[in-house]
Design goal:
Elements (H helix, E strand, L loop, with lengths): L16 H4 L1 E3 L7 E5 L4 H12 L1 E2 L11 H5 L8 H4 L8 E5 L5 E5 L4 H7 L8 E8 L1 E2 L3 E9 L2 H12 L9 E8 L32 E11 L5 H13 L8 E7 H5 L1 H12 L18 H12 L8 E2 L8
Length: 321
């Protein structure tokens, strides 16, 4: 914050937000969404899928954030290892600079401004419009979670998955640490999908784990042109190679929009319980692969062994993305 600074309400006029979104195809080629900087990603999702059967490739986990907000930060999630973060999936921006000038910038037009604004935390201008590449939206998603007692095995499997070639890779890879207890927020009740599935702690061998366990979460998209049996077999083949605790695997087939909206449901439950109103700061850290085992030992197991009353996400990304 700066003395005498301004706070801009980029949600002004939200009632007409969907009307301001445009599908553009310069030269009749690839499709893009022109969307206001104050639009929520949730609004972009429903507009693009419902009206055009298209979708951006890269998302945040929580969709009730503005387009300009995440593009000013990074926009990282479980798709980033494959498609890059949201800042790597932008074709063009309209920016209001500190001098009050409105400029359109891209890789080729005012590139210094374009790359300064993306991930620039609002220090170089305000994003008022973004042009986002679109591709055909998947129809359904095969969503799975598996549990590990060993962090070394968890990390090795996660790193192996994000380095697979595209034709044999998942579309989404994330994961989280959770407390080895029946605490409804911090413990194993937070793992099973769909709701109501049971977690059997007897499958965990005594002495096999410390205070924390680890859940690897993956998803494979199914497009209309794909045969369901082929997608099922690909899913089974990739899961077969993982070293998770057998019997502690959970899976669900869900619609694409439902999968991307999964954190919204968590928010709604937290609002009903009142916990959403409590302070819950979010922190993202990038830790090198060579240091991640020490981070697990010193921070997760050493400092956060009782949980944080919320998710402790931990998953790999590729520096090349």
């Amino acid at each position: 914050m700066s003395e005498g600074g301004l706070v801009l309400d980029m949600r002004a006029g939200a009632a007409s937000r969907r009307l301001q979104m445009k599908l553009v195809s310069p030269g009749g080629g690839a499709a893009f969404a022109d969307v206001p900087g104050g639009a929520l990603w949730e609004e972009v999702l429903h507009w693009a899928v419902s009206n055009h059967g298209l979708a951006p490739a890269s998302w945040t986990d929580y969709l009730r954030l503005t387009v300009g907000g995440t593009l000013s930060n990074g926009g990282v999630s479980g798709q980033s290892f494959r498609y890059g973060p949201q800042v790597s999936n932008v074709a063009e921006l309209e920016v209001v600079t500190g001098e009050g000038e409105c400029r359109v910038c891209s890789h080729s037009a005012h590139p210094d401004l374009f790359f300064a604004v993306l991930g620039g935390l609002g220090q170089f201008g305000v994003i008022t419009r973004a042009r986002i590449p679109l591709s055909p939206a998947p129809q359904t998603v095969k969503w799975a979670r598996v549990v590990y007692a060993s962090f070394a095995e968890y990390a090795a499997d996660a790193e192996w998955l994000v380095t697979r070639p595209a034709e044999s890779a998942f579309d989404y890879v994330e994961g989280f640490a959770f407390v080895r207890s029946d605490d409804p927020v911090n413990g194993w009740p937070s793992v099973p999908i769909p709701a109501g599935a049971r977690f059997d702690p007897s499958l965990l061998l005594a002495g096999e784990s410390g205070p924390l366990l680890y859940c690897l979460e993956v998803a494979l998209y199914q497009h209309p042109h794909q045969q369901p049996d082929d997608v099922d077999e690909r899913m089974r083949e990739m899961m077969r190679r993982l070293k998770y605790v057998r019997g502690l695997e959970y899976a669900a087939d869900v619609r694409y929009v439902e999968f991307l909206s999964r954190v919204n449901r968590v928010e709604e439950e937290a609002r009903r319980s009142g916990s959403w109103a409590a302070p819950h700061p979010w922190l993202n850290l990038f830790v090198s692969a060579r240091d991640i085992a020490d981070f697990d030992r010193a921070v997760l197991k050493g400092m956060l062994a009782d949980g944080v009353d919320g998710p402790m996400l931990i998953y790999p990304m590729l520096k090349s993305k």
